[in-house]
């Protein structure tokens, strides 16, 4: 399981669109950010530190910068001392505004990364919020294969050896795209959305018994893989049991709960002679129809009930 949070260094090195320039505090780049919210400390800079959200990224926009510039050197030094009494993960000045010298010196002493960026405050907050939402989203790991089938993120689950990877391999050959094999990292980005991805080490690779480790991107091309995908359907592959009862109508759809989000769930029995890839494709297309409000099973049930009622009327006509 990945360590919670994201380091300041990761934000600096991997997100060039933020255009961050490190002014000082390099030793603090290993600080971890564990709060997806950001803070504009305008009220705190006036001396009111009650409820100061010091565990968030501190954003100094035009207002904060202009206010600090309006202070006398004595007042600025006093506010700086009070501000840096708290543990801070990093400070960022937007609009390319140069940080005040007392802030630079104190950040250097405390080892707190201080950045400036030419990006506007509004734009920067939008970008950094998206990064933090992804990095700090609740997450879990599931054993299975995540593949995009007709645009539907489909998570194949089941016991080891049931044929998940082999099914996914045939789906890839049919033009669908692999997201993750074996271990799927799942993150909840909102109350109703789960995103599945793969670790950097395993990305684009798949294990097939008898063949070993395959690089799907090299074998089938860049169009055969995706880095992440919204999970919209779970299909559990299960060995056929002679006397087990399986879904025959599909009127009511089962769900499985992952991180508090309910995902449509289907159980498909596996036995020789069943073309599982075609069944998975059909299940994905049917799920796409359900998203559009069309339920074939319910429509058939309605037609059947109507037919039965009409048959009763014709068999037993009302007599005057």
Characterization of this structure:
33% of the residues lie in helices and 28% in strands. It is of the alpha/beta class and 320 residues long. The protein is elongated and about 95 Å long. The chain starts with 5 loop residues before the first strand and ends in a 5-residue tail after the last helix. The mean pLDDT is 89.
Q: What is the compact description of this entry?
A:
By secondary structure, this protein is α/β, with parallel strands linked by helices.
Any descriptors?
alpha/beta; 16 strands
Overall structural class, as computed from helix and strand content, comes to alpha/beta
Q: Strands across the major sheet, in which order?
A: 2-7-6-5-4
| Beta-strand proportion | 25-35%
**Share of helical residues:** 25-40%
Element-by-element helix/strand order = EHEEEHEHHEHEHEEHEEEEHEEEHH
Q: How large, in whole angstroms, is the Cα Rg?
A: 28 Å
- The dominant shape is elongated
**Overall pLDDT:** 89
Number of strands: 16
- For the terminal residues, how far apart are their CA atoms? 76 Å
| Uncertain residue segments | none
User: How would you sum up the major sheet?
Assistant: 5 strands, mixed
> Tally the helices: what do you get?
10
Give the secondary structure arrangement, pairings included:
Layout lengths: L5 E2 H7 L6 E4 L7 E2 L4 E2 L2 H4 L11 E4 L1 H9 L2 H11 L7 E3 L7 H10 L3 E3 L4 H15 L3 E11 L2 E6 L6 H10 L3 E12 L5 E4 L7 E4 L3 E4 H5 L7 E12 L14 E5 L2 E10 L5 H16 L4 H20 L5
Parallel strand pairs: 4-5, 5-6, 6-7, 9-14, 14-16
Antiparallel strand pairs: 1-3, 2-7, 8-9, 8-10, 10-11, 11-14, 12-13, 15-16
